[in-house]
From TrEMBL:
PANTHER family per the UniProt record, alphabetical: CYCLIC DI-GMP PHOSPHODIESTERASE PA4108, CYCLIC DI-GMP PHOSPHODIESTERASE PA4108-RELATED
Entry GO MF terms: hydrolase activity
Name of the protein: HD-GYP domain-containing protein
Record SUPFAM superfamilies: HD-domain/PDEase-like
Cited CDD domains: HDc
InterPro entries, per the entry: HD/PDEase_dom, HD_GYP_dom, HDIG_dom
Segments forming domain HD-GYP: 28-223
Gene3D superfamilies: Hypothetical protein af1432
EC number: 3.1.4.-
C-alpha cells in the first residue's frame, strides 16, 4: 500500500469519481478491500457526495497513520474503517442527505441512526470489530455529548476516536454542502484546537493539527 503517495482529492465532488481519487486502488484486492469497494460503490450510487466524504476521511486517516503508526495500528484496517464509517447513510434517504436546509426533528433522527445502522451492516458482513466500532462510535465525543450513546469516548477504540477527529475536520472544510460554506483552513485549525480535549481525543487531534500546520506551511491542502 502506498501510504505516502496518496493523491490529492479533486477540489469538488463533481470532479473525478466523486472526489474519491485514489481510494479504490488503495483498498486493494483483498476480500475486505473488494467488499469495501463494493459498499463504497453502492454509497456513490445512493449519494455521491457522501462517498466522496468517506474517501476524504480515509485519506486524512492515512496521513495521521503516517505520523503515528504505532498508535493507529494496521493501515489497511484504518483505511477501510475510514472509507466505511458513514456506510449507514445508505439507509438515509438521499433527499435527506442532500437537503439544502436545516433538517427537522425527523430528519435529524434519521441521520442520527446511521452509526448504528452502519455498524450492523458491517458486522453482518464480517468486517473486523475495529471497522464496526469506527462506524458505530465516530460521532461520540471525548468528554461526552455525542451520539448514539453520548458517554465519554476515552474507552472507545483508538481507530473510532481517530475517525471522529478526521470526520469532523473533513466536514468543516469540504465542498459540496449546500446549507453552509466550508471553513477556511485557518478556521478549521482553530476549531480543532478549541475542541481538543472536549470533542476530540487531544493526542489524536494534535497529530492532525501538526499534519495540517506542516502542510499549510508548505502551501499544500490536506483534502
Ligand atoms: Fe457520520
Amino acid at each position: 500500500m502506498n501510504i505516502h503517495g496518496l493523491p490529492s482529492a479533486p477540489s469538488s465532488p463533481g470532479e473525478g469519481e466523486a472526489g474519491e481519487t485514489g481510494l479504490p486502488a488503495l483498498l486493494g484486492s483483498t476480500p475486505r478491500g473488494v467488499a469495501a469497494r463494493s459498499l463504497i460503490g453502492q454509497l456513490r450510487h445512493h449519494h455521491a457526495p457522501t462517498a466522496a466524504h468517506c474517501a476524504r476521511v480515509a485519506r486524512v486517516l492515512m496521513r495521521m497513520w503516517a505520523r503515528a503508526p504505532d498508535q493507529l495500528g494496521d493501515p489497511e484496517t484504518l483505511l477501510i474503517a475510514g472509507a466505511l464509517h458513514d456506510i449507514g447513510k445508505l439507509f438515509v434517504p438521499a433527499s435527506t442527505l442532500g437537503s439544502d436546509r436545516a433538517l427537522d426533528e425527523d430528519g435529524l433522527a434519521t441521520i442520527r441512526r446511521h452509526p448504528e445502522t452502519g455498524a450492523e451492516v458491517l458486522r453482518s458482513l464480517g468486517f473486523p470489530p475495529v471497522v464496526v466500532a469506527a462506524a458505530r462510535d465516530h460521532h461520540e465525543r471525548w468528554q461526552g455529548g455525542g451520539y448514539p450513546v453520548g458517554g465519554h469516548s476515552e474507552d472507545l477504540h483508538v481507530v473510532a476516536r481517530a475517525t471522529a477527529v478526521a470526520d469532523a475536520y473533513v466536514a468543516m472544510v469540504e465542498p459540496g454542502r449546500a446549507y453552509r460554506t466550508p471553513l477556511t483552513d485557518g478556521a478549521a485549525l482553530a476549531e480543532l484546537r478549541a475542541c481538543r480535549g472536549t470533542h476530540f481525543d487531544p493526542v489524536l487531534a494534535d497529530i492532525l493539527l501538526v499534519e495540517l500546520a506542516e502542510r499549510a506551511a508548505a502551501g499544500l491542502a490536506l483534502i
